[in-house]
Structure formats: structure tokens, C-alpha cells
Amino acid sequence: MEGPVFDVLVIGGGINGAGVAADAAGRGLSVCLVEMGDLASGTSQASSKLIHGGLRYLEHYEFRLVREALAEREVMLTRAPHIVWPLRFVMPQTPGTRSRLKLRAGLFLYDHLAKRRRIPRSRAINLADDPAGEVLRPDVRHAFSYWDCWVDDSRLVVLNARLAADRGALIRTRTRVTALERGVDTWTATLDINGGRETCRARVIVNAAGPWADTIGALTRDNAPNAATKLRLVKGSHIVVPRIDGADDAFLFQNTDGRVVFVLPFEDAFTLIGTTDVPATGSLSDATCSPEEQNYLLTAANRFLASPLVATDVIWRFAGVRPLQADETETNPSALSRDYHLELSGHRHGDALLTIVGGKITTYRCLAEAVLRRLEHLFPGLAPGWTAIASLPGGDIPNADFGVYLESLARLYAWLPEPVLHGLARRHGSLTRDVVGDARRLEDMGAIFAGRLTEREVRYFADNEWAMNPEDVLWRRTKVGLHLKASHEHGAVSAAIAALLVR
């Protein structure tokens, strides 16, 4: 770290940082990414797990953002069909919610703002004749359906980091930046790594620290312009319950306050409900779903569900802090733009600091391209953008048809139990064979945790995906932690995984 001078130092290992690192490395720049925790351990693991256009953003006239996001659905379905797939949404229409005319107009725009190749169009449905009607109260009779995409958000971050590393980037997790100092033509970053001190020199700094962006800006010793006055921190919380009977589609429920709440199929056996929009207070690292937010989500869902949920149904809750661009004229957090803003201070090597504010997981790739456009004057001859047509690791599946590919794996590895094989394929796609390696029978995979995670895959995470502790494996590289049925089981599995991760 103390020897080479990198072209770009990216601070932050969420989706924006990983996306920028991959794009920059693929254009021939030398890149180092540092993250104070694990990859995706902040906001990026706490999303609603959707690649979506943002239907509700149309009400705020954010047509460019929606168009860009809608187009990215098609890009991501091609780049990463193992972790991204289409999902039908059902939106009931009842008295007191948005009018049918308004919904039809919004959905017409949603269908036509960007070209669709794999995404079906919206339509009106009669819930008496549609399986989704069995999930809802009998008096809810009319609805609209439309399509967006599901994404495994944490794996999206990890795979972008892997893409960056494959093209030469250095990825350093558990590495905290404690100081930034301008030089004649390079920055010097002081790093804390497990209590030890190192330095890293780079020509340009990209501040992709999300909610911590203003903290990074404040580390510059000469009070360089930073994002401190432009951030509005908003907390979004989700709850998870056992799979609601029949809820294999996603639902979008309109609440009485005008907000919308998603009810989403999750991890085969669960339903995910979110999200809230409340001002973030307290520690950014310990954001939690409050009892009030949990009650809000349950109440919003129960307005439509045939079988109401109660607090004891909630088996997991999580929250993340969104770093949105501040708008002093807007008091409603839900109305704040989810678009991204890039602030560049300095215009030469050793002076340029680019801070990312806002953004959404759907448009991270477009954001990364925008970052490189802002920096291209510093790197004459920079190669053109390339990520729109490049598969993410494991995404080079023939015809982007995951179903057909899974069938081929099932024939090849007939000895693997279906939950194990399906999990491997969803997480690794065409790299599944690398994970299985020379295993020829189930015993070769080692112990199986929660019926779906093997010792061999844990070692793969350690060797190839920067996993360092059990939480990295159980909650970010996978969601197997959700399938552990008791605290004692979680403790035993965590201990076994910890032993596998020891170097």
C-alpha cells in the first residue's frame, strides 16, 4: 500500500464504491477500494432488494431518473441473470387510494419511458380471477399488475468488487481512512487496519462512503469542500415474516398517508415488508427498525391482507440509512429525490476529490459512468465505458436463461440436494463449477449448514470474496442466517464457520 501510487482511491465498499471501482479498473486505471467494514455492510445490504424504475417517482416528475432506471432493468437481467430476475407486482386499487385513472396514466408511462425486451407490460386484473386475490381481503376486487426485478443486493456489491479485482483493483475491507492530505500531485490517505497504520497514495479520491460521506470530506486538513451541507440522512426499515400464504407475487400497497409499502417474496420461505422514510438519528452503524416503524409497516400491510399480521409474526427486522441530497424546501423525507449528485472539488491530480451523494441501487452502474465522465479530463486517453455489455462474475449464462442453466447443473450434480444446488446457482451462476471444484459426492462438500450452505462454499467466500467472519457469510454472501431456527443453532453454525475462516 505504501509503495505504488494509485490513479483512484475509492472510499466506501457499498454498491456505488464497488461500481466505480469496477468501471475505473476496466478502463485501465489503477484502483484501490477501502471499506471500513465488510462489503455491503452499510446501506447497500438494507435495500428493498429491487431493480426497479420507481413508479412513485413519477408523481415527483423525475422522468429522467425513472427512464434511466427502467432501462437498467434490461441491462441487469442480461449482466447478472443469477442474482436478478423479473417479479410481478400487484397493486390493489380501493376507495381512498390513488384513482384508477391516475394509476393507468402512471403505468402507461412506466411501460413506455424505456424499451422493454424481457419485462412484460402492465395490465388491469380482476382479483376474483387472479391467484393474487387469495392473499387480499375479499372486498378488494380490482388491481393493476406491472413488472420490475428482484436483486440480491449484497451479492450485487460483492460481484462488482470481484469484477473490479479481476481487472486489477485492490480491494481492502476492514480498512478505515483516518486522514487525507493533499500533496503536489497525489493524495496521501492514512489507513487504520486492525489497529495498525498504513498509508496509501492516489491521484484522485472518490468519496463513496454513503451516509459517512461528510465525515470523509472533513478529514481533509485544509477544509476542502465536502458534502456535509448537502446530505439528508433518511432511515428506511424493513421487517420479515414467514411467507404469507399464496404471496408468490410482489404487492405494492398504498397507505393512507400517500406512501407505498412493498410486500415481497423473500428467500423461498419468507415475506419482506418495507420500507419506511424517517429522519435518521443516532449511530449510523447501528440503525435499527423502531417499534413505531414496525407497527407502521404491519398496519399498512394489514389494510389489504386477508389474514392480518401481528408483531409476533416478525422474525427479522433491519434498517439502513440513505444519504440523500438535501433539499431545505422539502420537509417530507419520502419526497426527497433518489437521484444522485456528484460534487467535484479540485481539478488536478493530488487535488481532485469527488463526493457521491444519493443514488439508488438500480442506477449504480449509470452513476459509475457519470463519475468517470467527471474525471476523464484528469486521465487523457481514458478507455470508453464498458460495463453495459459486460457480465458480472457468474452472469455469462447462455441466453441469460437461468432456468435452463439450473437444469443443466442439476444433471451435472445430481448428487447435490436441491436447496444446496439452487443456492449455489443463484449466488454464483456460471461460477458454480468453480465452487464445487473437484467434489464428486456430497461428502466432498463438507458439513451442510441449515440444509443449504456447505463448508466448501464458505471456504470459497474466504478465498475469493473477502469474507472474514460468520456475519459476512450468513447475512451478506448468503442469507442463510435467516434459515437458522434458534439462537443456539445460530451460535453453533457461527462457531463452525469462524473455524473455517481462520487463516
- Mean pLDDT, to the nearest integer, reads 93
- According to CATH, the homologous superfamily of the largest domain is FAD/NAD(P)-binding domain
Q: Describe the biggest sheet?
A: 10 strands, mixed
Point out poorly predicted stretches.
223-229
Q: What would you call the quaternary organization?
A: single chain
The chain-level structural class is alpha+beta
Number of helices: 13
**Beta strands, count:** 20
* Residues in helices, as a percent range: 25-40%
Characterization of the model:
This protein has 503 residues and is an alpha+beta fold. It has three domains: 5-43 and 155-230 and 337-389, FAD/NAD(P)-binding domain; 232-325, D-Amino Acid Oxidase, Chain A, domain 2, CATH 3.30.9; 400-501, Helicase, Ruva Protein, domain 3, CATH 1.10.8.870. Helices cover 29% and strands 25% of the residues. It is built from 13 helices and 20 strands. α12 (470-477) packs across α13 (487-501). The chain is globular, with a radius of gyration of 23 Å. The chain starts with a strand and ends with a helix.
Compact description:
The protein is an alpha+beta fold. It has 13 helices and 20 strands.
How do the strands and helices of this protein lay out in sequence?
Layout: E1 5-11, H1 15-26, E2 31-34, E3 50-51, H2 63-79, E4 84-93, H3 100-112, E5 123-126, E6 142-151, H4 153-166, E7 170-172, E8 175-182, E9 187-193, E10 196-207, H5 213-217, E11 231-242, E12 250-254, E13 260-266, E14 270-274, E15 278-279, H6 291-302, E16 316-325, E17 340-345, E18 353-358, H7 364-375, H8 402-412, H9 418-428, H10 432-436, E19 448-449, E20 453-454, H11 455-464, H12 470-477, H13 487-501
Parallel strand pairs: 1-2, 1-10, 2-7, 4-12, 10-18
Antiparallel strand pairs: 3-6, 4-6, 5-6, 8-9, 9-10, 11-14, 11-15, 11-16, 12-13, 13-14, 17-18, 19-20
Helix pairs in contact: 1-4, 1-7, 12-13
